[in-house]
Every structure is written in structure tokens, then in C-alpha cells.
Write a structure and sequence with these properties.
By secondary structure, the chain is of the alpha/beta class. It is built from twelve helices and twelve strands. It has helices at about 15-25, 30-35, 40-50, 95-110, 125-130, 140-145, 170-175, 180-195, 225-235, 250-255, 270-280, 315-334; strands at about 5-10, 35-40, 55-60, 75-80, 120, 155-160, 160-165, 205-210, 240-245, 260-265, 285-290, 295. The longest helix has 20 residues, at about 315-334. It starts with a strand and ends with a helix.
Length: about 325
């Protein structure tokens, strides 16, 4: 059976994306997992290899099927969109923001055209995107627009802990307002459907509590009584295996130990802190609910260390591993 093809846009050229890309490609394990096609700029990748003391043979191609997937080879779709004399490592620039968008656009097209099986993204910079007047704040919004998907679903995975998020980039006050029976009910259904797509059949889902001790029967807030419990009861009537609310100080631990297949976190930081405290480098973002599957590192461009050759590729290697692992299940349903 052919290994899946993963398309990897290199991210912001002024950050660590190109560096972790070339470093990941030197790891023999990734070649056992997948066939990798990089989308970026040859000059940028050569610079990253130079300051990281890495040697790879760059093989420029137009189609993934033309790739040479032997170890030591970097198969590249070269957009040639960076002026190296203007590139400043570690600095927010419109040029690199525009280029990073173009890499994502081209890699997403490969997946939509079924020339690649998974989109595995590195890191982009929100300020650089803004400087380039790219009308999106991040990867999820860009890929959602490119795939015409209104509500992509984000799941974090670290080891065997999977976490979904009821809300993402909103204030904490707004996040609390979004804790309603209808919203939780919809996310329970979406989370179960996503787990099925990833090959987790008949999943056991847990809902984290919002308030301390899940509200202590209304002593510390009524969100659990008014929203979480009714949503859980309704889901159980639909035949879904779901528990909650369960105190957020324990539910993630139980899931990590295997009691639950996934947890629905009720706001952004609740789930982010839980996953990143398990293993910061191996926390991976997976975007589901689109016509393509996306896995991603969950760290930024690290402009403070860009160009120094000291960035770790562990997160990208893990994103490649999960992309390769989930690709066969996603292929069955798309």
C-alpha cells in the first residue's frame, strides 16, 4: 500500500517554519510514515539548511507524482516568491506574510485536487498576514475560506488525549456566554462525527465543567445545570456515549489515561493548558469538517530564535505522524 502524500507549506519565511521543515526531513522515521511534498521557496529552504548545517537534495517538481521520495531528498513545489535581499529573519514583514498565504493556498489546492492526502502546516505570523493585507487571522480561517467550509472543527491531540473546543478566539466573557444547551448539543454531534472520521468508532465523550467543581449543584454557577446537563441528557437519548459535566481539574487526566476518547473543552485556554502541560512539543492541532484533512504544529513562528538553527522539529514530526495515521480513515469518507 502506498504511503500517504502530505503537503507541507513552509510557513513564514522569517520564522522557524523553513528550519523545522528541513530538520524534519532529515528524520528517517518520517520517510517510513509518508511521502512528503514541501510548498515554499527554494532559496529560503537552502538558507535554512545552511544555518542548520543540513544537507538535502532539493528536487523541484510540479506534481507530487513526480517526486523522488528517497531519504535525503526534499521534493519542492517552488513558488519563488521571496526576495532574499529583503528578507530579515525574525522580523514581521508583509512580503513573508503574503508568501505564507500563497504556500497554504497552493498546498490546499493539492489536497482539493487529491494530489495530496493531508495538509500538514507549519507556522505563520498573524502580524505578517495583517501587514500583507491578507484578510484572515490564521490557518483555520484561510483554509476554511479556500475549501468553502463555514465551521471547521479543531481538535488537539497529545499522545492519546484528544480535546475539542466549544469556543476559540473570543474573550473569556464571550466564551461563557456561548455555553448554551444548543451550542453544546451541536458540538457533541460534531465531535462524535469527527472521531468517527478519524477511525474512533462508538466514541466515549466527556464534557468538561465550566465552573469550579462543575458548579457544585449551582453553588458556584448554573451553567452546568442549565446548559451542560440538558445537552448531555439529550445526547444520551440520541444514543451517544457522553458524560458530563466533569470537573476540569480531573477530566483531562481521566481521558489521558483512556477513560474517554475525547473531551469537549468549554473554552480555549481550558483545553490548551491541559494538552500543553502533558507535552508541549507534541500537542498537535487537527482540523476536521472540511473536504481535506489538516494536521499542524501548535506553536508560533518563534521570531526570537529564527535563523539561529536551534528550533526543534519535534512538533512537525508529530504532525506528520498523525497526518499519516489518520489519512487512511479520512480517505474512506471523503
Amino acid at each position: 500500500m502506498n504511503k500517504p502524500i502530505l503537503a507541507i507549506p513552509i510557513g513564514d519565511a522569517a520564522g522557524i517554519g523553513p528550519e523545522i521543515t528541513v530538520k524534519a526531513l532529515t528524520d528517517s522515521a518520517v520517510h517510513d510514515m509518508a511521502r512528503l511534498v514541501v510548498v515554499g521557496d527554494r532559496k529560503v529552504l537552502q538558507k535554512a539548511m545552511d544555518f542548520s548545517n543540513i544537507k538535502l537534495a532539493i528536487n523541484c517538481i510540479n506534481d507530487p507524482q513526480d517526486g523522488n521520495f528517497a531519504p535525503g531528498v526534499l521534493n519542492l513545489i517552488d513558488l519563488d516568491n521571496i526576495e532574499m535581499d529583503l528578507l530579515k529573519m525574525g522580523v514581521v514583514q508583509a512580503m513573508t506574510g503574503k508568501a505564507s498565504y500563497q504556500y497554504i493556498e497552493a498546498a490546499t489546492r493539492l489536497c482539493l485536487d487529491k494530489k495530496a492526502d493531508v495538509l500538514t502546516t507549519t507556522c505563520i505570523n498573524k502580524e505578517s498576514l495583517k501587514a500583507a493585507k491578507v484578510p484572515f487571522i490564521g490557518h483555520t480561517e484561510i483554509i476554511g475560506a479556500l475549501t468553502r467550509t463555514k465551521n471547521p472543527l479543531t481538535m488537539f491531540q497529545v499522545h492519546n488525549l484528544r480535546v475539542f473546543f466549544l469556543s476559540r478566539h473570543v474573550s473569556l466573557r464571550q466564551a461563557c456566554e456561548l455555553v448554551t444547551k444548543d451550542n453544546i448539543s451541536a458540538f457533541i454531534d460534531q465531535s462524535v462525527a469527527a472521531l468517527n472520521i478519524l477511525g474512533v468508532k462508538n466514541p466515549h465523550l466527556a464534557i468538561a465543567g465550566l465552573n469550579p467543581h462543575s458548579g457544585e449543584h449551582g453553588l458556584f454557577g448554573r451553567e452546568e445545570i442549565d446548559a451542560v446537563m440538558p445537552a448531555v441528557a439529550a445526547a444520551r437519548k440520541r444514543g451517544i456515549d457522553v458524560d458530563g459535566p466533569i470537573g476540569a481539574d480531573s477530566v483531562f487526566h481521566f481521558a489521558l489515561k483512556g477513560k474517554y476518547d475525547a473531551v469537549l473543552s468549554l473554552y480555549h485556554d481550558q483545553g490548551h493548558i491541559a494538552t500543553k502541560m502533558v507535552d508541549f512539543e507534541k500537542t498537535i492541532s487537527i482540523t476536521i469538517g472540511m473536504p481535506i484533512l489538516r494536521t499542524s504544529v501548535d506553536h508560533g513562528t518563534a521570531l526570537d530564535i529564527a535563523g539561529k538553527g536551534i528550533a526543534s522539529p519535534v512538533s512537525l514530526i508529530e504532525a506528520i505522524r498523525l497526518g499519516a495515521e489518520y489519512a487512511p480513515f479520512f480517505d474512506q469518507v471523503r
